Structure formats: C-alpha cells, structure tokens
Amino acid sequence: MQRRRFLSLSALAAALSGCLVGDFGDRSGGTARTADAAGTATTGDAATDTEPPPSEVPTPECWPSMCAGSILVDARVAGGFSGDVVLLAACQSKEVPVPPGESVRIAREVDAQVCDIGLVVDGEQVFRGRVSSHQSLRLTVDSSGDVTDRWVVQ
Fold first, then answer.
1. Does 146 fall in a domain?
2. DSSP states of 57-114
C-alpha cells in the first residue's frame, strides 16, 4: 500500500515539476522565470508576458441579453381545455393560435429583443406583459382556463 501511495505521489510531483520553475518574480511587474514548451527556462517581464486565461465558457456576443433565435415566449394549453387561445407578440406582429394539448414557441428575431406579449382566451385578453432583453416567458393555460406565467431571467 505504501508503495502505491509513493508511486502516485511521484507521478504527481513529476507532472507538477514543470510548473514550478523559477522564482516567480513579483506581482508589480518585475521579472519572472518561466519554462517554455521545450522546458527551457526563460526570463521575461511579468507584466507583458502574462495573459488572462481564456474563458472556459464561450460568451456569445449578445450576452447578457438573450440572443436571436432564443425563446422569447412559450405558451402551452392543457389538453382538457376546450376554448380558443391566441398568443400575441407585438414586436413581431404575430397572432398565433395555440390548440389544446399543444404548445407554441416564439423565438427572438434579433439579439436582446424586447416584446409586449399578450394571451387571449375565448376572445378576452387574460395576460399582458413585456419581456425584456434578458428574460423569457412561459405561459400555461390549464384545463379550467386559468393562466399561469413563469418568467425566466438569464
């Protein structure tokens, strides 16, 4: 057991040895010794040789707003509902019927699109709201015709 532990620590130390070359310089822009890809120690100006690490998560150009093609509004109608439901998106001049048991999604046409949304049930507007550039909206009509709204902030 001790031998395995020694071997695993040896491997770890060998892997880290290339990271620990040099005196690390100072943080105020002094010189630092680093190892290049070939393992050769080099000396350079710490202020100009260092770059910020690349982002691990790619950031879309429209961040923090919602990008074109993202869901603006999603409307769902329960299968047991027997009335007429129409989803309104003023920013796109759309009036989309939502049949019972189905859902309809409207996507943003441009980055950060803001839109006034309405929901009409049996000829009466039962919901009205504005989706901002960093939000999306889910509307649900249950079998009795009651509407619930769920706002998602990105």
1. yes
2. S---TTTTSPPTTSEEEEEEE-TT--S-EEEEEGGGTEEEE--TT-EEEEE-SSTT--
Question: Does 124 reside within a domain?
Answer: yes
Q: What is the pLDDT of residues 20-37, one digit of tens each?
A: 444 444 444 444 444 454
CATH number, domain with residue 84: 2.60.40
CB 39 within 8 A of CB 17: no
**Which residue is associated with the tokens 């620590």?**
9
CA distance 29 to 14: 29
Question: Which tokens hold the place of 65?
Answer: 């707003």
Domains contained in the chain, number: 1
